[in-house]
Write a structure and sequence with these properties.
single chain, 70% helix, Cell_cycle_GpsB, mainly alpha, cell cycle, flat, cell shape, 113 residues
């Protein structure tokens, strides 16, 4: 897993050297302020998700073993399998489309000549 290299404090305290034709310091500061806000939001999300993981692990440990059984396949899954088996393949669709284009555009080309 990747490690976090900078903290919000590191970003805030970063100083850049000012050269003859350097970057606009206010623009850099505004950009870094935006990065710091995003970084704080990411840290909050990570903390919340880690808490959720801990809660779910505890819930899984305390859950009765019978409740962990696999649920039966729903009707929607059966319908999707049936439709997938009877549906046309991409090749069939492209062949039909090709015939339609020949009919439509073939007549237009003959009329334009």
């Amino acid at each position: 897993m990747a490690t976090i290299k900078f903290t919000t404090k590191d970003i805030y305290e970063q100083d850049f050297k000012i050269g003859f034709r350097g970057y606009d310091q206010d623009e850099v500061n505004d950009f870094l302020d935006g990065i710091m806000k995003d970084y704080d939001a990411y840290e909050a999300i990570i903390k919340e998700l880690k808490g959720e993981i801990t809660r779910l692990k505890a819930q899984a440990v305390n859950a009765p073993k019978a409740a962990v059984a696999v649920a039966p396949i729903s009707e929607e899954t059966d319908i999707l399998r049936t439709e997938r088996g009877s549906s046309a393949t991409n090749f069939d669709i492209l062949r039909r489309l090709n015939r339609l284009e020949k009919e439509v555009f073939g007549k237009q080309i003959a009329q334009d000549l």
